[in-house]
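Much of what follows relies on a compact textual record of a protein's fold. Each token is a code from a learned vocabulary of local backbone shapes. The record below shows the convention in full.
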Amino acid sequence: MKISQLVDAYIQASPEICGSQLAVLKRMAKESIGQCPVPLTAKNVIDHAKLRSRTVCPATVNADIVYLRGMLDYAKHGLGVENVTAQPVADAMPILRRQRLIGESDTRTRIPAPNETKRIVARLKGIHADVAAFQNESGRRIGETCRLQWGDLDEGKRTILVRDLKHPRKKSGYNKRAALPDAAFDIIMRQPRLTIMQDERIFKVTAKAFQAAYRKACAVEGITGLHLHDSRAAVVTRLLDAGYTEPQVMLVTLHDTSRMVRSRYNRLKADDFPRRAA
């Protein structure tokens, strides 16, 4: 059996695999590591990492290794494939780290400036403009925004159930109710509701279509280095600056722990340290 065949069997047996994990596994099946026989060797893992490092950063290579190890861990008992073990990955790890072939992603510090947000919203039209404005007020991921349903909105409490939240261990069905900042609530309320169906989507656009429109708007406006997801950081930063506590911010963002809010979205600098008056 080759690794490519193991990938196919693993995907078929695991319908919960989706998104980036699914894409990474399918890509590896087509690359040279996919032609390696089972069981892998540590050298196979290192060679794959070296090849990938020519075109991508260490954090991206690390994602390959994580998903590969997960598949190998599952294969013996979940698929009944003998002689499969994740030990070659464990054996390769010291070399991968020493040669800096893998690593953590850099924390992004870029957030859209208020004038950039206004320019992007102005450049977009119709539903795309409303979604862009909502992203900069709600802190939702774009996939979550495009799944929001009228039946999940509580107008009185200004909250909404967010379905299929991103979670490292739960691929679907992880739903939580989020608080809506006033501006985000107002954007929802001006969307047309066409039916009485509870599952009617509030924003009738796909994440893929909106992302394409957003990238085009940034390009036309000459705005560089900005990612759509940076609007989430902007919301968190704005709420913290306004004096909301971390638990209160988490009611909007739906982070499971305050560690992410405290570490990733803390924009304090050394010169922000309070000093006694002279």
